[in-house]
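# nightly structure sweep
# worker-07 picked up a monomer target from the shared queue
# config: single-sequence mode, recycle default, output format = structure tokens
# input follows
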Amino acid sequence: SHNYFVPVGRVIWDYADLCDTSVASPISAQWALRKLETRGNKGVNILIFDACREVIEVSLQTKGRGFERKGFTEMHSNGSFIAYAAAPGQSSWGNPQGRNSVYTAQLLQTLKPGQDDLPIPLLFQQLHVPVAEAAKRQYAAAVQDPWENNGLKGNFCFRAPCRSLTGPRISQVDLKKEQQARQQAEAEKRRLAAENAKLQEQVRQAQQAKNDAVLNRLLQAEENAEKRRLAAENAFNEAKIRTQIAKSIRANFGRYSASDPLKVYVMPFMSSDRFTDSEIGRIAWVGAMDGIRDIASFSAGRMKLVYYNSSRKAFENDLQRDSFWRDMRSGSNIKSILKGTVNRKGSNALIYGLYDGDDYGLEITVYFYFKYDYLILKTRDRIKTTWDVVMGLSRNKKAGGRLTYRQKALQRKIHAKMTLAIVSLLRKYMEAREFKAWGIK
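# output follows
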């Protein structure tokens, strides 16, 4: 059996139609493959078929002019890599909102700097999960699983040398597990939110009936549901952090090396006048440093955290004695102040932040300054909470008292948000440096 490329709209009635050589006639895929393999292209040919894998087999002996659908016949190759947009019997889905099909759109995302040094079988394997999920998003009943046939006699990648697969790399299986963990955490959050809403309605009804015994039980159930919801939200934030770290590892650390690493110093976070102490800032400060530590542990010495220690005393000393915040508030040249600070701290990058709050939440702004690129990146996070919970956390932390479950949840959320903010900013910076090194504008 042979495979044929049939033009859109062309009707095939019999074997003669397949052999037609006029304009817009079918072309044998096996013939095209043989032509490529005889050209002697150093043993490497790459064919990418983005088409429905449903082809006609003609049976002149038993069917006369009829046809029987058998699916795409497997093509064996010698020195060729063949990639199909869909498995045998499946369709390659289009995208009504864009110019490219589902498969082509995901392929373009994969063929970008940072991935192009992967051996080609591993590079195309990374398309499987994104294509299947994108097809599902476009059409609920869609099933599309990319398919490859590797006849290459050695490794090939679009940018030599091919990446070594040894060391602490994050595999596709690990990334899929992280994605499943996030999806499970999101589903658990939705379920717990619905459960909490139901319990709140029951509490309202009990209050109207003035049934104190029932009310107390329901209030306890509501508190337990809130604890579970906060735990699920914390698990979701941790999963997001692990995913961002996995992406950062693949970003090649922005061309920094062990001999010339990215050295980051984290300044104490400054509060607005509404705060009477710096406990909230210290929680955010520790979260930022932990984000740097998390990525530095995979960097093979290409990134380092420059700091004294993470104690309250170190935080207060830097906040009160260092001239950084006084200079920043003076309105002088900001980049000159930042450059002087990193030189003084023995680093080439600096993190600093501001935080403020109101009756409806806590807002934290983080800045990331990179000396070599004269670049300042910024992100802002707003944490929904109440002013009472914020001030209760601040007072109990300062006095060494016991935290309530809401205060503990807020502390974990501040820490996780800052870790995620730092990891995300650093990943964007390293990817931008990769593009700059490749001459991409």
